[in-house]
Amino acid sequence: MTRYAEYLLPVVVVVVGLVLLAGCRGPVESTQLVVDTDSCLGCGECVEVCPYGAIEIIDGDAVIDPSLCHFCYRCVEQCPEGAIY
Amino acid sequence: MPGGSDILMNIVTLLLAVLPLTAAGSALDGWLDAATGGDSLSPGMGVIEGGGMLRGDLWNLTVQGKYVVTDTTEITRKFLDEYSVIDVNFKVREGATIVNPDLVWIMDFNEKTPKMVLPDQGGMAFRHGYYRPGLGLETAFVENFRLNMRGLYWNLAAEHEDGSDLGWTGFMLDGRITWDSPWNTSFQAGAVTRKSAINKTGYAKTWNRYDVGVSLHPGGMPRNMYLTGGVTYSVYDGRDFLQRDIPDRLIARIRLMQMGVLPSVTAGTSFESVFDFDGNEIRMACTALEAGLIWKFMKKARVPSTAILSGKLTRSAIRTQTARLFTRVHVFRGLSVLAQARARISPTYVAGAGPYRKSYVAGPGLEYRFGNKIRIWGIIEHERTNLTGNENWWRIKSGLELYPGTVSF
């Protein structure tokens, strides 16, 4: 049983993820962007394209100020790691 | 910037005075990374990054510098196109307590001074840089409780388009308590307050965030399987740029990695889901799924060969899709052949190209390693992307990474 469980768990995570992805068409209006801190390299390319001064690199991760962000998605387009969405 | 150079000179003078006294019984690590590249659209990209860490038994001092000349194409217009970052970070430990003052100083160069859009229709401004001193505190106390606190202060050197000084300052205070329980679970509670003010336009905004969270890191998983997960609920007190309340947010993450799923193959999967609580409405705001395989082969060679295949899907108000392949195959002595490919769909800001941009990048490269101290690499890429029409261009990139090793005093 344990032998099957070790293969089942990754499959469950992927399947649940795909189902939720398929079901999520996104909110009508964005409320905040998300930074995946595990993927973020802190390279600063998002800072370079943000004209609102809404992004800072703090302790090696991009941090977005939700009061300054205008949802232009330039940072999403620019991020080489796809860490902002 | 007014006062900025004086502050930096004072810090450098202080460091030069103190370092000889503290150097006895310490060790120095240094590093240097340089990368450059160009293509027909953006001929002069480059990054030089270097730094050093001087460390003793109970303290360390890290000084890092970075000089960047960015891609100047209009594909995604850069707000910053030439700038430098200096980060001076000092940590000292006393028992279970770490005190961490640091200073980040950014200077914007060249004639194309960054043009900022000011909040609340405040007009445009030209930024020349900023400095950001900070102070962190970390301590541990009874029963595996940890306390982290940090304060940051921003002072931007920026002038309004009418030529007057903006007087833009910011402040952030961040505090968090973590309890590492005996059940492979950590509980966190924290709060953040952030204030921004622009004297020139009268802009002043403060937002607060209060977090509670739990993270799991169970042990005893089946063969070489590592699982981490966490849930954080954040209550926001503040408004966004349209003066709407920032909704509360629940973020759930799970990350799973298994080594040796096949011989020499590591598999990783992560999934994240975000829910917003906006008044009486609860909506799924974002989801992301990422999966990857890492295969290491020819392990006995001087440089192990690697193949990495990964993909990522995200959905929020926008969607992104990324697939990547990277290989490094050892050939002879320190020489390896590189190959990479990436396909990506992302939103685009390019007028007439949107709403989504599909880009495909692929190309070969070479890498040479002199032991663990020097790495030289070069890559030629071809990019095809649909902007106002499908466009194709070549890009060449190269770099040098130098790590001379540790010097003990």
Task: Give the SSE layout.
The complex is a heterodimer of chains A (85) and B (409).
Chain A: H1 2-23, H2 45-49, E1 55-58, E2 61-64, H3 74-78
Antiparallel strand pairs in A: 1-2
Chain B: H1 4-22, E1 27-39, E2 45-55, E3 59-69, E4 82-94, E5 97-108, E6 115-117, E7 124-141, E8 145-160, E9 168-180, E10 185-198, E11 203-216, E12 225-237, E13 248-262, E14 265-278, E15 281-297, E16 305-315, E17 319-332, E18 335-347, E19 356-370, E20 374-386, E21 390-408
Antiparallel strand pairs in B: 1-2, 1-21, 2-3, 3-4, 4-5, 5-7, 6-7, 7-8, 8-9, 9-10, 10-11, 11-12, 12-13, 13-14, 14-15, 15-16, 16-17, 17-18, 18-19, 19-20, 20-21
Shape of chain A: elongated
Quaternary class? heterodimer
The amount of beta strand of chain B, in percent, is over 45%
The average pLDDT of chain B is 87
Cα distance, first to last residue of chain A? 38 Å
Q: Which characteristics define this entry?
A:
heterodimer, A: 85 residues, alpha+beta, Alpha-Beta Plaits, 3 helices, 38% helix, B: 409 residues, mainly beta, globular
Give me a quick take on this structure.
Chain A is an alpha+beta fold. Helix content of chain A is 38%, strand content 9%.
Give a written overview of the molecule.
The complex is a heterodimer of chains A (85) and B (409). Chain A has helices at residues 2-23, 45-49, 74-78; strands at residues 55-58, 61-64. With 85 residues, chain A is α+β, with helices and mostly antiparallel strands. Chain A has one domain: 2-Layer Sandwich (Alpha-Beta Plaits), CATH 3.30.70. Chain A has a two-stranded antiparallel ribbon. In chain A, strand 1 (55-58) and strand 2 (61-64) form a beta hairpin. The termini of chain A are far apart. Chain B has 409 residues and is mainly beta. Helices cover 5% and strands 69% of the residues of chain B. Chain B contains one helix and 21 strands. Chain B has one helix spanning 4-22, and strands spanning 27-39, 45-55, 59-69, 82-94, 97-108, 115-117, 124-141, 145-160, 168-180, 185-198, 203-216, 225-237, 248-262, 265-278, 281-297, 305-315, 319-332, 335-347, 356-370, 374-386, 390-408. Chain B has a 20-stranded antiparallel beta barrel. The mean pLDDT of chain B is 87. Classes of the chains: A alpha+beta (85), B mainly beta (409). The interface between A and B is large, with 53 and 73 residues.
